[in-house]
C-alpha cells in the first residue's frame, strides 16, 4: 500500500461530496497516503480541506475547488424524489474535468429482502424500502452519466465513535431477538482501504459495481452480546422482536424487515482485497482500543 501511495496517490486530488462519517475517514486515509482530499460541508468550516456544497440550496462550490481534480467520490444520499444531488447540480461541471475516476457509495439495500440468502453483484436489484429505491435510481443515473463511475454497495457501517459501544454508554441500546435474522456489516476502515486498493488495480481488472462487506453476516444480538462481554458488563435481557416493534422508530423498524447475507467474493476472492476486519469481533476490538486510548489522554 505504501508503494502504491508513492506512485499512484501523490499528485492526485480527490473531491469528496459528503464529509460525514465515511467521507471523512476515506479522506484521512487518502491524505495519509500522499493524496489531496477535500470534503464538502453544508456550512463554511475553519478547515482548508473543507468546501461548501449544500444540496438543498442553489450555492455551488467555488470554481477553484475543482482545479486539478483527478478523482471524485460522492457519499451524499438521494433527495426525496430519488435524484442525485451531485449529478443534478454538477453533472456538466464534472464532465468538463479530466477525471480519472468517480466513485459512488450506495447501499446493499438495493438487493431487498432475500430471506437470509446470500446476494452477489450478479443478483438483480429488488429494493423493498423507499430509500433503497431512491438509491437504485441514483445508481442508474451515475451509470448513465458517461463518467468513469464505480459503485460501492455497503451494508451496515460501523467504526470508531459509531459502534454498539456508544449505544451502550448512552444507555439507549435496544437488545432485540428475532429468530434467523442476520445483518451484514463493514468497518469504515475497510471501506476506505478497499476503495484505495481498487484504485490501484482498476486498470487491470475494473468492476463497475462492488459489494464491500465483511466475512461474517450475523444477528445483531450476537454483536451486542460480544460488546457487553468486551466491556465486562452483563447484557440486559433481550426483548422479543414482536414486543420491541412498538419501541422502534419507522426507519429502525424498516431495517428489521429485510434479511440477507452480502457476499464479498468479488472483492476479496476475485479481486484480492484483504480485509482489515474480517468480522465484527476484530472491528469491535479495534473500536474499544481507540476508546481506551482516548480515555487515557
C-alpha end-to-end distance: 30 Å
What gyration radius follows from the Cα positions, in whole Å?
A: 20 Å
What name does the CATH topology of the domain at 2-159 and 184-216 and 261-276 carry?
Rossmann fold
Side-by-side strand order of the widest sheet: 3-2-1-4-5-7-11
CATH top level label of the domain at 2-159 and 184-216 and 261-276: Alpha Beta
- As a percent range, the share of strand residues is 15-25%
Q: What overall geometry do the principal axes of the alpha carbons give?
A: globular
What's the architecture of the domain at 2-159 and 184-216 and 261-276 in CATH terms?
A: 3-Layer(aba) Sandwich
Approximately how much helix is present in the residues? 25-40%
Please outline the major beta sheet.
7 strands, parallel
Describe this entry's structure for a reader.
By secondary structure, the chain is α/β, with parallel strands linked by helices. It has a domain at 2-159 and 184-216 and 261-276: NAD(P)-binding Rossmann-like Domain (Rossmann fold, 3-Layer(aba) Sandwich). 38% of the residues lie in helices and 16% in strands. A seven-stranded parallel sheet has the order 3-2-1-4-5-7-11, with helices on both faces. A two-stranded parallel sheet has the order 6-13. The protein has a two-stranded parallel sheet with strand order 8-10. Helix 2 (21-32) crosses helix 6 and helix 7 (220-231) packs parallel to helix 11. The longest helix has 17 residues, at 280-296. The protein is globular, with a radius of gyration of 20 Å.
How are the SSEs placed, and which strands pair?
Elements: H1 2-9, E1 13-17, H2 21-32, E2 36-41, E3 50-52, E4 71-74, H3 85-96, E5 101-107, E6 118-119, H4 130-143, E7 149-154, E8 156-158, H5 164-170, E9 176-177, E10 185-187, H6 188-201, E11 209-211, H7 220-231, E12 239-240, H8 241-244, H9 250-255, E13 261-262, H10 265-270, H11 280-296
Parallel strand pairs: 1-2, 1-4, 2-3, 4-5, 5-7, 6-13, 7-11, 8-10, 9-12
Helix pairs in contact: 2-6, 7-11
Amino acid at each position: 500500500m505504501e508503494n502504491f501511495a508513492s506512485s499512484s496517490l501523490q499528485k492526485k486530488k480527490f473531491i469528496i461530496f459528503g464529509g460525514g462519517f465515511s467521507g471523512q475517514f476515506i479522506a484521512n486515509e487518502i491524505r495519509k497516503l500522499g493524496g489531496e482530499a477535500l470534503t464538502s460541508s453544508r456550512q463554511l468550516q475553519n478547515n482548508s480541506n473543507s468546501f461548501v456544497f449544500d444540496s438543498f440550496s442553489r450555492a455551488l462550490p467555488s470554481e477553484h475547488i475543482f482545479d486539478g481534480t483527478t478523482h471524485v467520490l460522492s457519499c451524499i444520499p438521494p433527495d426525496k424524489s430519488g435524484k442525485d444531488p451531485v449529478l443534478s447540480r454538477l453533472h456538466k461541471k464534472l464532465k468538463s474535468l479530466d477525471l480519472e475516476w468517480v466513485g459512488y457509495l450506495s447501499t446493499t439495500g438495493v438487493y431487498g429482502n432475500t430471506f437470509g440468502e446470500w446476494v452477489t453483484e450478479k443478483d438483480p436489484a429488488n429494493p423493498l424500502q423507499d430509500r433503497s429505491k431512491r438509491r437504485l435510481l441514483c445508481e442508474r443515473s451515475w451509470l448513465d452519466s458517461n463518467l468513469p463511475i464505480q459503485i460501492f454497495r455497503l451494508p451496515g457501517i460501523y467504526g470508531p465513535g459509531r459502534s454498539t459501544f456508544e449505544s451502550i454508554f448512552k444507555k439507549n441500546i435496544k437488545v432485540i431477538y428475532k429468530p434467523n435474522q442476520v445483518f451484514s456489516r463493514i468497518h469504515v476502515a475497510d471501506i476506505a482501504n478497499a476503495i484505495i486498493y481498487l484504485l490501484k488495480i482498476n486498470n487491470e481488472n475494473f468492476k463497475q459495481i462492488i459489494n464491500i462487506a465483511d466475512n461474517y453476516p450475523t444477528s445483531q444480538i450476537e454483536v451486542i452480546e460480544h460488546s457487553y462481554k468486551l466491556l465486562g458488563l452483563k447484557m440486559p435481557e433481550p426483548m422479543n422482536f414482536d414486543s420491541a416493534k412498538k419501541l422502534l422508530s419507522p426507519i429502525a423498524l424498516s431495517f428489521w424487515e429485510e434479511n440477507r447475507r452480502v457476499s464479498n467474493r468479488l472483492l476479496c476472492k476475485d479481486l484480492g482485497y484483504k480485509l482489515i476486519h474480517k468480522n465484527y469481533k476484530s472491528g469491535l476490538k479495534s473500536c474499544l482500543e481507540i476508546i481506551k486510548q482516548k480515555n487515557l489522554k
